[in-house]
Amino acid sequence: MEVDLKGMIRLIRPVVPGMQAKGAGAIVCLSSIMGVAYGWDEHVAYSAAKSGVVGMVRALAVELARSGIRVNG
Prior knowledge:
By secondary structure, this protein is mostly helical. The chain has helices at 6-22, 44-65, and strands at 25-28, 69-72. The chain has a two-stranded parallel ribbon with strand order 1-2.
């Protein structure tokens, strides 16, 4: 969780204001099929973190689109 989800949040948060000031930017997050379609035996935290990444990417894409920032996973 600290790396797979929170690490991305910690990297994205400080760069967004600069991208908004420019009116452009692109954010790419590493997601996984394990966060969308499958569970993975004995890797619950990884699957949960990647599900969080997918949700974060979707939400940020909608929120930041009006600022000219693309967000993809």
